[in-house]
Amino acid sequence: MKIDKTAIIGAGSWGTALAWLWGKDGRQISLWGNNAARAERIQKTRENSDYMPGLRLPESVRITSELRDCAGAGLIVFITPSTALRGIAKRLRGVIRDGRTVLLSCTKGIEHGTGMRMSQILSDIFPRHELAVLSGPNLAAEVVRGLPTATVIACRNPKCATDLQGFLGSSRFRIYTSDDVTSVELGGALKNVFAIAAGASDGLGLGDNTKAALVTRSLAEMIRLGTAMGGNFKTFYGLSGVGDLIATCFSKHSRNRRVGERLGRGQTVKQITSSMQMVAEGIPTTKSAHECARRLNIETPIIDQVDGLLYEGKLPVQAMQELLERDQKAEQV
Questions:
Q1: Torsion 12-13-14-16 (CA) sign
Q2: I need a labelling partner for 60 at 20 to 30 A (CA). Which of 4, 20, 88, 144 fits?
């Protein structure tokens, strides 16, 4: 695989972190952001002060708000909000002429209404292109500090996955490969819902015993729903499943955990989202996951309670009490 130029679609914290990671060795990167004024400011200052203050982007990274500047890339990486992916991909379709361009989705979510994963949306819009996904316990704030990180690239074409592994990986950004695109994507999407639940537990001050039990049962629920949606249970025990679940449920850097913590402390969803610069993907994904679970008739008590917190105005104390009052049973994973 020969890639002379990489385009990153989405100039938030993760997009900026990957532009820095992959551009610091002189690799040509185009970083696209939807806000023209912000893109121009970043291009001049070399710093994305809204999302990654203090991080200087290499000169090899070009920041743009024009999708046509991404057209000649051999690899296009999508890191947009999940709710915006379809619209942005349709706009990009008009400027990509080369069917050999590889598409890599780093967006974590499930589409409302359709229940489609992000790679399925991209496959619909770009049916001729090779598609891969990247997911794992990858907190942007730690990646830009040069701390060791592991992740998974999944592609149904093993050679494509191996090529991307060699091209994008490094000693501090260790990449594993997989052919299980479905499970890798679902693990990355669903963990954000459970991180909100874990944060609510923190906000309520319920302690380590409670949180450990909640995260463990979240993994069981992730596997139950994920396999019903076509995933392989073994993959959920890997980096993109339990690994990402641990990171997002426990890290101080996890925005979804922070959303839950603020809910647990009595703030409303509107108060929280209006004060956030970044998108917490667990909020829209909760709605989508709840829809999928009902459609497939899968029992998802934790997802149900998070949905109640976000969309029905349920109080965190009530949600936790309803989880605890469920019938006792034998443990099943």
A1: positive
A2: 88
